[in-house]
Amino acid sequence: MTTNAPTAPEGAHRFFGERLPRAVTFAHILADTGVSHGLIGPREVPILWERHLLNCAVIEDAFPADTRVIDVGSGAGLPGIALAIIRPDLDVHLVEPMQRRTDWLASTVSQVDLDNVTVHRGRAEEVHGTLSAPFVTARAVARLDKLARWCFPLVEHQGRLVAMKGRSAAEELDRARPALGRLGLIEAQVSRHDGGVLEEPTLTIDCVVARRGRR
């Protein structure tokens, strides 16, 4: 595959280690069909590693060993595929409603040679009651209160929603707390993740969810 994907930076070599070849394959796919399918913009290709692969992969420290993770609105497989690359112990489930994107995700999982990823076609609400996990994650899907309505029912009792957010994560959490409480929030905090390779950490809002949120 010949693309204009940027060369993996030194930080990617350190972070991915022996898993780097899989990350490089994913980067080439994103720079090629990821762009042609409208999953990432062409202007994002030069910053692919920092903006997408490493930005997503560094949240791996939010998940304990050998757990199951659902990535809601997976789109370009971010963060789900990036997590599956860096953490082969995770059982990753990608939930995406668009057929064209699920086909792309399935093809990408095969090309990257991942055996710890399952692709599901559907909206989060459509898999309520049939799919659940101790951990659910999402990136750039919706504001936190709406995301919680979609994701809390997928979170097992006292599990976590790990929502990737931008610099205003703390303010967004403060605004959403009343709604989150009604949905079953036990506690929440903003966490920083840099993996020792990012100058600007990735921020997540981590929400511990009670079973009563599964309504």
Low-pLDDT sequence parts: none
Alpha-beta content class: alpha/beta
Q: How is the CATH topology named?
A: Rossmann fold
Main β-sheet, in a few words?
A: 7 strands, mixed
Total strand segments: 7
Average pLDDT figure = 94
Strand order of the largest sheet: 3-2-1-4-5-7-6
CATH class: Alpha Beta
Which range does the strand content fall in? 15-25%
Helix count equals 7
* Shape descriptor: globular
Helical residue percent? Answer: 25-40%
Named at the architecture level, the CATH assignment is 3-Layer(aba) Sandwich
Number of domains: 1
Order of helices and strands: HHHEHEHEEHEHEE
- Which value, in Å, is the CA radius of gyration? 16 Å
Distance between the termini: 46 Å
Assign the CATH superfamily. Answer: Vaccinia Virus protein VP39
Can you describe this structure?
The chain has helices at residues 10-16, 20-36, 48-57, 80-86, 99-112, 144-151, 169-183; strands at residues 68-72, 91-96, 117-121, 133-139, 155-165, 185-193, 202-209. The relative contact order is 0.14. A seven-stranded mixed β-sheet has the order 3-2-1-4-5-7-6, with helices on both faces. It is globular. Helix 2 (20-36) packs antiparallel against helix 4 (80-86) and helix 2 packs antiparallel against helix 5. It has one domain (56-213): Rossmann fold (3-Layer(aba) Sandwich). The mean pLDDT is 94. It is α/β, with parallel strands linked by helices. The protein is built from seven helices and seven strands, in the order αααβαβαββαβαββ. Helix 6 (144-151) links the parallel strand 4 (133-139) and strand 5 (155-165).
